[in-house]
Amino acid sequence: MDAMSDARERLLRDDPAFRRLSEKHHQFELRLDSLRSKRFLSEEEKTEEVRLKKLKLAAKDEMEQILRRTRD
Fold this sequence. Notes:
Strand content: under 5%
Shape: elongated
Number of strands: 0
Number of domains: 1
Largest sheet: none
Oligomer: single chain
Number of helices: 3
């Protein structure tokens, strides 16, 4: 395991905020997978897909900030 993976695992274990962000990121991904599995999306689903992508990216960005702070 590399240093980044070690830090991520430690944060998942010890940091409730990081763990919540990771869980949210995973839930967004699961919902996106569900939408991607459909042949056609309604306008509402297309809007939801865009919203979920933004939320997922925001969660990832926050997790990366936490990781950077723990490395510095």
